[in-house]
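#data-curation
PF: Archiving a pair of folding outputs for the training set. Convention for this channel: one message per protein, sequence first, structure tokens after, nothing in between. First:
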Amino acid sequence: MPVIESLIRSEADGTISFGNYKLESKAKLQDFEHAGDVYKIKTYYEITKLERNGMFVYESVPGTVAEHFTVNHDGVEFLVEGDKDAQITIQLEDDTEYEVFVDGAAVGGMTTNMSGKLNLSVELNEGVPCQVKVVKR
């Protein structure tokens, strides 16, 4: 899974892909339009952060690449790659319980906090995408 040279792109399946964990210095792109929403991406080797319409969506520490990122009423799904294990925070519904799957294996239920953020850890190996799926219970 290659880094996203343009920082963010629309995919043919209606999803988005974003991030570049190989950048030595911060790069950002604002006002990227996709499906009626406006996105802002900041990314480099230390962090990748995505906002939609001025609101938090995704953050990883250290930086990652997320491909085929999609959000629906039941949760979120994407492929993630990086050169180090990552802590990922995603925005979902407030105070709601979700089941988290990493590479098809259930890793347990997690409840978002009062601001709707869910934190998870993924073990990553460069060049090997990891599938993350978060589904509302």
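PF: Second:
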Amino acid sequence: MRVIIINGPMGVGKTTVGKYIAENHPGTAFIDGDWCLDIHPFVGNRETKTMAIDNILHMIDNYKNCSVCKMIVLVWLMDDRWVYQKIADGIASMELEVQSAVLVCDKSNLINRWENDGKCEWRTREWLDVSLQSLKFFSSLENNIDTSGLTVGMTADRIMHLS
């Protein structure tokens, strides 16, 4: 079974692309890592991230054992390398295929997407500044896809054809 991990800064389109892949590939489970760390008020420290990783890996293991599940898409902002590595190692220990994609875009595209997403409570100026500052880090990671000028479908297609 294939597990696609989609990483990238806030507002780049991870959730949109992940849902698109799931909706267009029957038998695909969609996991949003934010569901696994939904504490109010938000606290993103080592303890809570470790708990979220454990929650994510439990979900993946359960989907792995489901006869109708053929693929899993996990979307989550992983701006600490250790977080990604713990998840990738956990998936590999389940003997599942891990495929990673890091979505990035240029600053003007990120600002435009941010301003046009009225659904998310995180879309504040403060968090936009944090997201813009993280672009350099995410651009330095392997398997990054610059989504500037790409449609959701084009981005999903590139992810599906990564080796």
